[in-house]
Amino acid sequence: MTTLASNQIRHLRAKAHALKPVVMLGANGLTANVLAEINAALDHHELIKVKVVAEDREQKAEFVESICAELQATKVQVLGHNLTLFRAKKKDSNYPLPKPNQAK
User: Fold this and answer.
1) How many angstroms from the chain centroid is the CA of residue 87?
2) Which domains does the chain have, with CATH numbers?
3) Are 46 and 87 in contact (CB under 8 A)?
4) Would the N or C end of the chain have less CB density within 10 A of its end CB?
5) pTM
6) What is the spatial distance between Cα 3 and Cα 25, in angstroms, rounded to a whole number?
7) Are 32 and 39 within 8 A, CB to CB?
8) Would the pLDDT of 86 be above 70?
9) Virtual CA dihedral for 64, 67, 69, 72, nearest 10 degrees?
10) What is the pLDDT of residues 42-84, one digit of tens each?
């Protein structure tokens, strides 16, 4: 999982505001097929939202951690049931990130 600076996270949150969830993680949990769909969506879009419906907060946190670890994606934000993920393309990124802020 890649760590981004606060200004980069803020930039991605602003870009993701208008996005709709492209994958839904529901009653069957985090299956190989769901991971494959999230991976394909990240390959195509770079920045996506995933609707995560879990029994409790702990389960949702486990799902988020597993997705980020398995797919080398960065968690941008979790807001309600929506998880925003980012994974930059190797070339020709649709979401060029600003330079990270330097600590003063």
Assistant:
1) 7
2) 6-86 (3.30.110.60)
3) yes
4) C
5) 0.88
6) 24
7) no
8) yes
9) -120
10) 999 999 999 999 889 999 999 999 999 999 999 999 999 999 9
Alpha helices in 1-104 (DSSP H): 6-16, 32-45, 57-71
**Which residues 6+ apart lie within 8 Å of 42 measured at CB?**
48, 71, 73, 85, 87
Judge whether 98 and 27 are in contact, CB under 8 Å. no
- Short-list 71, 79, 28, 7, CA closest to 49: 79
- How far, in Å, CA of 33 to CA of 104, rounded? 45
Return the amino acid letter for 90: K
Q: How confident is the model at residue 91 (pLDDT cuts 50, 70, 90)?
A: confident
Chain segment 2-46, per-residue pLDDT in tens: 788 999 999 999 999 999 999 999 888 899 999 999 999 999 999
Return the pLDDT at 18.
94
Closest CA to 84 of 26, 4, 17: 17
Residue labelled with tokens 């985090």: 30
